[in-house]
Amino acid sequence: MSATHLRGVKPQAGRDPDAIKRKPPAPAHLTPFARKEWDRVLPMLIKRGLICQADLGFVEAYCTARGLVVEAELRRRQQGEDMLKWLRTQNAAMLTAARLSASLGLDPSSRARLLDTDADESDDDDPLAIR
Fold this sequence. Notes:
This protein has helices at 32-48, 56-77, 83-104, 108-115, and strands at 4-5, 8-9. By secondary structure, the protein is mostly helical. The longest helix is centred in the middle third of the chain and has 22 residues, at 56-77. Residues 1-31 are annotated as: Disordered.
């Protein structure tokens, strides 16, 4: 049972009723690195029932950011490339990918939060709780 407080009712985590059932093809404009990430994460998200058609752009953005992390690392290692430029690019892409991955449940803490349907906030010490 969910606790009621001024922030509202905590929604139960669960499968999206409109979850996609099969992995769609990767968008054609994705780089090979981003496409590899698409093929890696989408089956997991589909299995968990967390992704619907409207979320695919979000997954695409995550895959693009992760692909850029790998590409920046490869370019940084190449002779003649401006190392500082690629380190900045890689850092920005890593931060973006980390934020997006947390929203998609691709890191351990967000995955636990999304999959923990028994979690219930305690209002015992909440001064704003409605009793």
